[in-house]
Amino acid sequence: MKQVDVAVGIIKRESQTYICKRPEDKHQGGLWEFPGGKIEVGESVAQALSRELHEEVAIRVHSTEEFMRIEHDYGDKHVCLHIHIVADFSGEPHGAEGQQGAWVDIAALNDYAFPEANVAIINKLLEQS
Question: Does Disulfide bond show up as a keyword for this record (predicted)?
Protein backbone atom coordinates (compact mmCIF):
# COMPACT_ATOMS: atom_id res chain seq x y z
CA MET A 1 0.00 0.00 0.00
CA LYS A 2 1.21 3.46 -0.86
CA GLN A 3 2.36 5.58 2.14
CA VAL A 4 2.13 9.36 1.73
CA ASP A 5 3.59 11.88 4.20
CA VAL A 6 1.75 15.20 4.04
CA ALA A 7 2.50 18.57 5.63
CA VAL A 8 -0.78 20.29 6.58
CA GLY A 9 -1.19 23.93 7.60
CA ILE A 10 -3.96 25.22 9.84
CA ILE A 11 -3.73 28.85 8.75
CA LYS A 12 -5.26 30.84 11.59
CA ARG A 13 -6.42 34.42 12.02
CA GLU A 14 -8.29 35.09 15.27
CA SER A 15 -11.21 32.61 15.39
CA GLN A 16 -10.97 31.72 11.70
CA THR A 17 -9.00 29.27 9.58
CA TYR A 18 -8.42 29.16 5.83
CA ILE A 19 -9.64 26.08 3.96
CA CYS A 20 -9.53 25.01 0.29
CA LYS A 21 -11.71 22.78 -1.86
CA ARG A 22 -9.93 19.83 -3.46
CA PRO A 23 -10.15 19.64 -7.26
CA GLU A 24 -12.74 17.11 -8.45
CA ASP A 25 -10.11 15.04 -10.32
CA LYS A 26 -7.89 14.51 -7.24
CA HIS A 27 -8.06 11.91 -4.45
CA GLN A 28 -10.95 12.97 -2.17
CA GLY A 29 -11.94 15.52 -4.84
CA GLY A 30 -14.72 17.99 -4.07
CA LEU A 31 -14.07 17.91 -0.33
CA TRP A 32 -12.67 20.77 1.73
CA GLU A 33 -9.21 20.54 3.27
CA PHE A 34 -6.60 22.40 5.20
CA PRO A 35 -3.92 23.38 2.66
CA GLY A 36 -0.64 21.55 2.36
CA GLY A 37 0.93 18.79 0.37
CA LYS A 38 3.34 15.90 0.07
CA ILE A 39 6.67 16.03 1.84
CA GLU A 40 9.39 15.50 -0.75
CA VAL A 41 12.48 13.36 -0.11
CA GLY A 42 15.00 15.32 1.95
CA GLU A 43 12.49 17.95 3.10
CA SER A 44 11.56 18.62 6.70
CA VAL A 45 7.90 19.13 7.59
CA ALA A 46 8.55 22.87 7.99
CA GLN A 47 10.27 23.11 4.58
CA ALA A 48 7.47 21.19 2.86
CA LEU A 49 4.78 23.25 4.55
CA SER A 50 6.46 26.52 3.60
CA ARG A 51 6.85 25.40 -0.03
CA GLU A 52 3.34 23.97 -0.34
CA LEU A 53 1.57 26.95 1.24
CA HIS A 54 3.47 29.34 -1.01
CA GLU A 55 2.51 27.30 -4.12
CA GLU A 56 -1.08 26.53 -3.09
CA VAL A 57 -2.30 29.66 -1.29
CA ALA A 58 0.48 32.21 -1.98
CA ILE A 59 1.56 32.99 1.57
CA ARG A 60 5.02 33.17 3.10
CA VAL A 61 5.27 31.15 6.30
CA HIS A 62 7.44 32.74 8.98
CA SER A 63 6.99 30.12 11.70
CA THR A 64 4.71 27.21 12.62
CA GLU A 65 3.74 25.31 15.72
CA GLU A 66 3.27 21.55 15.72
CA PHE A 67 -0.40 20.72 16.35
CA MET A 68 -0.85 16.98 15.88
CA ARG A 69 -0.02 13.97 13.72
CA ILE A 70 -2.61 11.65 12.20
CA GLU A 71 -2.26 8.37 10.34
CA HIS A 72 -5.21 7.28 8.25
CA ASP A 73 -5.82 4.36 5.91
CA TYR A 74 -8.06 5.19 2.94
CA GLY A 75 -7.82 1.67 1.51
CA ASP A 76 -5.95 2.73 -1.63
CA LYS A 77 -3.36 4.72 0.29
CA HIS A 78 -2.14 5.32 3.82
CA VAL A 79 -1.55 8.96 4.77
CA CYS A 80 0.46 10.41 7.60
CA LEU A 81 -0.59 14.00 8.20
CA HIS A 82 1.92 16.27 9.96
CA ILE A 83 -0.32 19.14 11.05
CA HIS A 84 1.02 22.54 12.08
CA ILE A 85 -0.65 25.77 13.16
CA VAL A 86 0.38 28.65 10.89
CA ALA A 87 -0.39 31.98 12.57
CA ASP A 88 2.82 33.80 11.60
CA PHE A 89 2.71 34.42 7.85
CA SER A 90 2.63 37.23 5.30
CA GLY A 91 0.33 37.66 2.34
CA GLU A 92 -3.39 37.00 2.00
CA PRO A 93 -4.23 33.35 1.27
CA HIS A 94 -6.11 32.65 -1.93
CA GLY A 95 -6.47 29.76 -4.35
CA ALA A 96 -3.20 30.28 -6.22
CA GLU A 97 -3.79 27.08 -8.23
CA GLY A 98 -7.35 28.04 -9.17
CA GLN A 99 -9.02 26.18 -6.29
CA GLN A 100 -11.82 27.64 -4.21
CA GLY A 101 -10.77 28.86 -0.77
CA ALA A 102 -12.39 30.60 2.16
CA TRP A 103 -11.81 31.96 5.63
CA VAL A 104 -14.28 30.20 7.92
CA ASP A 105 -15.04 30.38 11.62
CA ILE A 106 -13.52 27.41 13.41
CA ALA A 107 -16.91 26.89 15.10
CA ALA A 108 -18.46 26.36 11.63
CA LEU A 109 -16.02 23.73 10.32
CA ASN A 110 -18.56 20.92 10.72
CA ASP A 111 -20.68 22.69 8.07
CA TYR A 112 -18.10 21.67 5.44
CA ALA A 113 -17.40 18.20 4.01
CA PHE A 114 -13.80 17.13 4.75
CA PRO A 115 -11.89 13.89 4.11
CA GLU A 116 -12.18 11.36 6.96
CA ALA A 117 -8.59 11.97 8.07
CA ASN A 118 -9.45 15.60 8.88
CA VAL A 119 -12.19 14.80 11.44
CA ALA A 120 -9.68 14.54 14.31
CA ILE A 121 -8.14 17.89 13.32
CA ILE A 122 -11.54 19.58 13.34
CA ASN A 123 -12.48 18.02 16.67
CA LYS A 124 -9.25 19.23 18.30
CA LEU A 125 -9.68 22.74 16.85
CA LEU A 126 -13.28 22.87 18.16
CA GLU A 127 -12.16 21.71 21.62
CA GLN A 128 -9.57 24.48 21.78
CA SER A 129 -11.77 27.30 20.46
Answer: no
